[in-house]
Amino acid sequence: MNRILWVDDEIDLLQPYIIYLKNKGYEVVSASNGEDALQIVKGEKGDGDNHFAIVFLDENMPGMTGLETLQEIKRLRPEVPVVMITKSEEEHIMEQAIGEKIADYLIKPVNPSQILLCLKKHIHQQEIVTEQVQQNYRQEWSDISYMIDTATTIEEWQAIERTLSKWDIELENAPMRSLIDDQRTQANAAFGKWIAKNYERWFEPQGDTIQSAKDAPIMSHDVMKHAVFPLLDQGEKVLLCVIDNFRFDQWKTIQPLISEFYSIRHEEQYTSILPTATQYARNAIFSGLLPLQIQQMYPQYWVEEGDEETKNQHEKELVQTLLDRYRRRESFNYWKVNESDFCEKVIHQLKGVTAPLNIVVLNFIDMLSHSRTESKMMRELANDEAAYRSLTLSWFKHSPTYDLLRRAAELGFTLVLTTDHGTTRVKNAVQIIADKNTNTNIRYKVGKALNCSSKNVFSIEQPKRVGLPCPNVSSSYAFCTGSDFFAYPNQFNYYAQYYRNTFQHGGISLEEMIVPLVTLGPRNF
Q1: pTM over 0.70
Q2: Cα–Cα distance, 235 to 251 (Å, whole number)
Q3: 49, 112, 54: which is closest to 80 by C-alpha?
Q4: 464-508 residue pLDDT tens
Q5: Residue 167 burial (CB < 10 Å; 0-12/13-18/19+)?
Q6: Which of 7, 320, 361, 443 could form a Cys-Cys staple with 336, CB 3.0–4.6 A?
Q7: What letter would DSSP give residue 224?
């Protein structure tokens, strides 16, 4: 039973209210002055039970005033919501009460329905909201299942990812959480089959090169031409912000904070190329080329899978090749941010920027994903998608990234916010046999004589047809779908346990492939 402490010097006149609340299932403890109320809150008076769901407090009482009582109650029990009830509407009293962090403010005379509404708002709001959200999801569940079963276009899969992300966020603390998890599993299984059927069709050979088919979706190598060049053509000063490993649900999580200083012009999604790994997808963004084309045209900027050097150390040079090929004369700045101190330097540099194109790569979420795999503590902090989103939000809110984007808005930059790929939580290990030169990523493999018995693996036997390099003549690619990940027979159980429930990328899932591409304009500062 929820307990209420009601403090009023005319408490005897409030007996009808107290009886009304008792009939509604509440236990009401009363006090006629501030001193008695504090003794009750301390457990020194009454039945000794000082746990209350809410306090109703009269502002105008003899002796210790309502505001003085409020200060002491908040000192003793800061977590308990206090509702101030007063005859006065003087502004300074309201401001002082609000400054002391009251939960609500009611003007006498109050009626029972006001009191009941106040209780629902401050005691029962979460359970009411949760129940309503669950009811809404139950009503939409069959519609989502139908969308999954009948999806035939990338636009329909994008709508499914938007819908699932919405319910992922809204149901993250709900008892029926498992239903949305099962529905996402169903969606990823169907999406994996759809990609296997359609992916190779999105690429067409043209002489010695590859080009996108007419019905191909916007993919990694199209991002600059699709989202950035038109803004430059309009004379806008652009900040392209690429957040590594950034999923659509993570974008929706930080959107309210960005909306403080940016308004959305256009929110869309694009499809990351395979493999959904930084080496392939981000290089494709900055070059406007498929990985095989980078290797052929600019071999000095392509790093093979087996090489030890960093796979994305030539991004700035690749941007320049893209501008040169399109005979664009824009100057540009490029920053890769791995540490907060360097982000602070970028913020200071923004004011003096004259280049129309400015690119910043933020690697924090990628580092979070990797550290979660390697660190037991990080596994505890991000043990599921809800916690992963929460850490993303905390990072954005308290890191210089928030200040960077706010400063960009103040300086009039148009913001294009995107990523190279997303990430997914893997659960099920599947065995694969490969030679010793095969790459180490657990969501995709490239090498000779790949052998995997799982029916959920998508294989590309002729990589060049989809713009992928071949380390050897007989090399092929294999991609995990859904929540699967590869493990070798040697020490299979160890690696199956080690990587289970970690966030990985490189394979095929809605979270990895259907990623945000958002254009935002600065609000009027």
Answers
A1: yes
A2: 27
A3: 54
A4: 999 999 988 889 999 999 999 999 999 999 999 999 999 999 999
A5: buried
A6: 361
A7: I
